[in-house]
Amino acid sequence: MKNTMKQLKGVINSTAELNKKNFEIVVVGTSLGGLQALTVLLADLPQSFPLPVVIVQHRHKSSRDRLTDFLQQQTSLQITEAEDKEPIAPGRVYLAPADYHLLIESPWEWEQSVSENDFTEWGRLPVEPIDNSNSSILSRGTPTFALSTEGPVCYARPSIDVLFESAADAFGEKAIGIILTGANCDGSEGLAKIKAEGGLTFVEEPASALCRTMPASAIANVEVDWILPLSKIVPCLVKLLRIKN
Amino acid sequence: MPETHELETIEIKLLLEGIFRYYGFDFRNYALASLKRRIWNTIRSEQLTTVSALQDKLLHDPAYLDRFLLDVSVNVTAMFRDPTFYLSFRNKVVPMLRTYPFIRIWHAGCSTGEEVYSMAILLQEEGLYDRCRIYATDMNELVLKTAKNGIFALKAMQEYTQLYHQAGGKKAFSEYYTAAYENAIFRSSLKENIVFAHHNLATDTSFNEFNVILCRNVLIYFNSHLQARVHKLFYESLAMFGVLGLGHQESLNFTPYEKHYEAIERSDKLYRRVK
Fold this sequence. Notes:
Oligomer: heterodimer
Structural class of chain A: alpha/beta
Strand order of the largest sheet of chain A: 3-4-2-1-9-10-11
CATH architecture of the largest domain in chain B: 3-Layer(aba) Sandwich
Largest sheet of chain B: 7 strands, mixed
Distance between the termini of chain B: 43 Å
CATH superfamily of chain A: Methylesterase CheB, C-terminal domain
Largest sheet of chain A: 7 strands, parallel
Number of domains of chain A: 1
Shape of chain A: globular
C-alpha cells in the first residue's frame, strides 16, 4: 500500500507505533537534479531536527568543498563532509565525500578488541578458559562513519546503495531512507534493504521529480511507505517524528 | 539487533578467526561495514550462499587464499591520486627534504604501486631521487608483483597525464613510459631506489626509521583499534619532524596520536611529527 498525503492524518494518529521505533538516522540519495532537490529538502529541515541526516549526491570526483559550501547556505544545520571514523552526531547533516563510498559502521561492537600481545605474538592463544559470563557478544557503542575506495557501484562512487545498505545493517528498523531525483537506478537495492529491516522509506514522486528514473526505479523495486512531492517530504517526516519547532 | 544479524556476525567472526589461526592473515580488526560487503561479494562470485560455506572453502583449499586476499583487500588506486596532495608535497615537504643527506620513505599499503611511481617521478623532477630509498610494502604478494613490474594499462594514461600536470608535473608525462600494445611500461630508472617488500600492517612491526611515511586510503579499512596500532607503529617509525601523509578524507582527529603531529597542509592531510 502506498500512502498519499490524504492518508497522512490517519497514519499520524497511529504514530505511537512509529514512535516506539525511535528513529535514529535519515539517509538521503540523489543524483541528476539533486542539487536543486537538496536545496528544498535542507531548507525545510527545522533547526530542532533531532536525527543525523546523511546524504549521497552523485558528484564528480574532483568536486571538493564547493558542494558543501553551497548546501550550507540552505540550512542552519551544520553540514560537513563525513570523515573516516567520525562519530555520527544528531542534528547534523553529513555529505558523502567525492570519490569515496560512505558507509555507516554499526554501533554494535565485537566483544572485545584484540590486545597488543595478540598482534605481535599471534600464535599465542589464551590458556585460561574464555569467560562467558558476559554472555552477549555484542555491545552498543557509538555509530561512526567509514569510507571505502572500492570500485563504483551502479557507476557511482559514492554510491547510494552502499550507504543505504550499511545504514540498514547498522540501524535496522531505526533507519529512514529517502530517494530523490536521479537518472540511474542506484539506491533501489539499498532502499529495499532498509524496508526489509523494517525501516521507513520515502521516495520523491516521479512525476514531479526533475529526473524520474531513480525514484521510479526505487518504487518498482520496493514497497515504498511514502511517495510524495519534494516539498511534502520533510513536513511529513517532521510530523511523523513529532518534532516541535 | 535482529537474530539473523547476530548469526551473520558470529559466522564472520569465525571466518576471520579461522583465516587468522590457519594462515596468519589478520582481518579481525578490519572496519566491518565495508569488509562485510566485500565478503558477501566474494560469496556471491563463488556461487556460495553463506559465510560458513566460504569458510569451508577457504580452510580446505589453500590455493584459493590468494584470490580471497585479492577480493577482500581493496586495490583501487591511481597515479597522482588527489593531485593537490602531490602539489603540496612538492611545495611544502620537498624543501625540507632537501636539507637531508639521505631520505628514507615508507609507502605502507602500496597496492599495485601507482602512487609509488608517482612519488618516484616527483622526487626525480626535484632532483632528490638519488638520495632517496623508498620502501613500498603491501600484505598481498600478487599486487606487489604488479607493483614491481611497473607496467600499467595504457588506457589510463590520459587521465594520469592530467593528474600529473595538476600535481605540478614539469615534463611531458609520456617521457616516463614506453607504450607497448595495451601497456605503459614505466622507465626502470624510476624503480632503482624502490624496495618492494611484504609487510602486513595488522601483524608486523616496524623495520626502520623513516623521514616520510605515506599511507593513503589504507587505514579507512581498519577499525579504530587497529588504526591505533598502526598509528603507534608509524609514530615510532618516524624520525622527529618526519612527515606523515594520509588519504584525503583521513585525519589524525580521531586517533590517540593527534597531539604528536602538526599539520603541514591540513586539507591535503600532510602532518609533521613534533614530539
